[in-house]
Design goal:
alpha+beta, two-stranded parallel ribbon, 29% helix
Amino acid sequence: MAPRVCLTAALHGDELNGVKVLQEVEARYRPADIHGTLVCLHVVNVPGYQAQQRYLPIYDQDSNRSFPGKSDRIRPNGWPTWCTNGS
C-alpha cells in the first residue's frame, strides 16, 4: 500500500494560519511529484470557520474532543475516524 498523508487545518474555526499553510503545500506539489496519497483538508470545521469561532456551533463542542472518533457514529465523532483511517 502506498503511503498516505492527511493534512488538516481549521479544526478550530478561529485558527486560520493552517489554511494558508495548506494552500502553500498544495501549490508546491504536482500530482506527478507525489508517490502515494496527499489529502489536504483546508477547513475541517466549516460551521466554526464561517462563524469564526473555535467550537462546532451546531454541537457546541470543541472539535479536538472528537478524536479518535468512532466509525459507527455520525458527526462530530465520525469524521476523525475517516481522517485517520481513510474509511
